[in-house]
Design goal:
487 residues, mainly alpha, 69% helix
């Protein structure tokens, strides 16, 4: 099943946080997901191992993966308890609507009607409705980018409540998925660099509050990671294991010759599996086939060793292959930038077979009755719409951003400030889209959902650019004046 099965496996890993929450609150609060033990992630082994001592059986019972946030698991838990995941979907949809409202009405100072028009366009011609209802923590990447743009460009125009809510969205996004921390730091570095080097130094007064929010998010995220590791160690006798994403990506990118040289001079655990090379990163991490997979089919101790050696392996293989690594990351980032789709919303026979024994029966019955299980026509059509509207968004945004539509000379101070805010926010949104492609495509595997979840920010930039600069009115005014002159 390739990338689809890897996504399904990662999604099911959030059963562990749900189970932990249910266990902490008691059996009365246990959900169907926690009661059905078939979905608990048990370690699988590629060879029989001796029975561990009784003291070690507790830690060997299951694998807890770092980066699979119990914070987002809590959102799913309450969604299940309060109405079959609909609560979680409603919360994510409200966050999207709130951020769009604040951006259009508060940051840009436009009328409420522009908010309604923008939502209608995004609902029809963007992937926002799909990913607002997608129960995976990485959908918060889009909320992080838009929330950051709001705080960076219009801090003074927000109320204390609006600042607090937007900051909480940023914090939740960082706690929900580890890659969002890199996205936040990258956006912060670019914004601060622009203000210090190119912008008026007076803007530093506004940006310092943004830096304070980012610093608080980073500190809380680090402390949370430490606390989570400590709690898992106390509960299971050993800390959580972080999947070896770096090792998997380097193996996939550099191929067998480069790996053989490193394995010939150093003793790495990953070298034990040379008979399975070449291997792509998704197969390395998530394949349950013992002939092709590695991380998901080895025993717990080997998983931990693969995690521990990631940094040493990277330091050993990157320097002699630096040019190849830079070229590979750049190409994958470029591929990711232009690769969008909705494949997650179509369930083929292989997908349904995968979920058959991994979902509560009533959820599986509902899945098989959906349009996504009967046909992929809507997904194919939706993918074409995404590409078309994204291209149209770029065609509209580019001339507006670079001054292709000349502003009126009689603009008011509010109009000038609104245009400046739109340009700054658009710059941040586009930078966030590019950083998302670099982080996801360059470090992880290229998948259509990674870019599709943020591509609607281009459509948002185009819509708000039209509303702010009003080129349609200026063109109409130009032709009206020209007609009068001809007469």
């Amino acid at each position: 099943m390739g990338n689809r099965s890897s996504t399904q496996i990662r999604r099911l890993m959030y059963v562990v946080p749900i189970s932990a929450i249910s266990k902490a609150l008691g059996s009365r609060f246990a959900t169907d997901w926690a009661k059905d033990q078939r979905r608990i992630i048990e370690p699988q082994t590629s060879a029989p191992t001796p029975e561990p001592p009784a003291a070690e059986q507790k830690s060997a019972r299951r694998v807890v993966l770092a980066g699979r946030s119990i914070i987002y698991g809590a959102l799913l838990y309450f969604g299940e308890v309060l109405g079959g995941m609909w609560f979680s979907i409603i919360i994510q949809s409200l966050i999207a609507a709130y951020l769009i409202f604040v951006f259009i009405v508060r940051s840009l100072g436009l009328d409420f009607r522009y908010f309604l028009i923008s939502c209608a366009v995004l609902f029809i011609a963007s992937p926002l409705p799909f990913f607002a209802s997608f129960l995976m923590p990485d959908v918060f990447a889009e909320f992080l980018i838009l929330g950051f743009a709001i705080l960076a460009t219009s801090w003074d125009r927000l109320s204390h409540v609006e600042r607090a809510i937007t900051s909480v969205v940023l914090l939740f996004a960082v706690l929900a998925h580890i890659t969002h921390l890199g996205l936040l730091l990258g956006l912060t570095a670019m914004t601060v660099g622009y203000v210090v080097i190119l912008a008026d130094r007076s803007q530093w007064i506004n940006i310092r509050w943004l830096i304070a929010v980012v610093a608080a998010c980073v500190v809380i995220a680090v402390l949370w990671e430490v606390m989570f590791s400590f709690a898992v160690s106390r509960a299971f006798g050993s800390p959580p294991i972080r999947p070896p994403f770096v090792t998997a990506k380097l193996l996939s990118m550099l191929g067998e010759p480069a790996v053989s040289k490193v394995c010939g001079s150093s003793a790495f655990v990953v070298c034990r599996f040379k008979d399975r090379f070449p291997i792509d990163s998704d197969s390395f991490l998530w394949s349950e086939d013992e002939r092709t997979g590695i991380f998901s089919v080895v025993d717990v101790q080997t998983k931990r060793l693969l995690d521990d050696e990631q940094l040493r392996f990277a330091l050993a293989i990157i320097p002699p292959n630096l040019g190849h690594v830079v070229a590979g990351v750049s190409m994958d980032a470029l591929r990711q930038l232009t690769y969008v789709g909705l494949s997650e919303y179509s369930y083929g026979p292989a997908d349904l077979n995968f979920f058959r024994d991994r979902l509560p029966s009533h959820y599986f019955d509902r899945m098989t009755s959906t349009l996504a299980a009967r046909s992929d026509a809507y997904v194919v059509f939706g993918r074409k719409v995404l590409y078309v509207t994204a291209v149209i968004g770029v065609i509209i945004t580019a001339p507006l951003f670079f001054g292709g539509v000349r502003p009126r000379r009689d603009r008011s101070a509010n109009e000038i400030e609104r245009e400046r805010t739109w340009r700054a926010a658009t710059c941040i949104l586009l930078a966030g889209i590019m950083l998302n492609a670099i982080i996801c495509g360059g470090v992880s595997a290229v998948q259509d959902r990674y870019q599709a979840r943020v591509i609607w920010l281009i459509q948002l930039s185009a819509i708000t650019g039209i509303c702010v600069l009003e080129p349609h009115r200026r063109i109409a005014l130009f032709w009206k004046r020209k007609t009068r002159c001809d007469r």
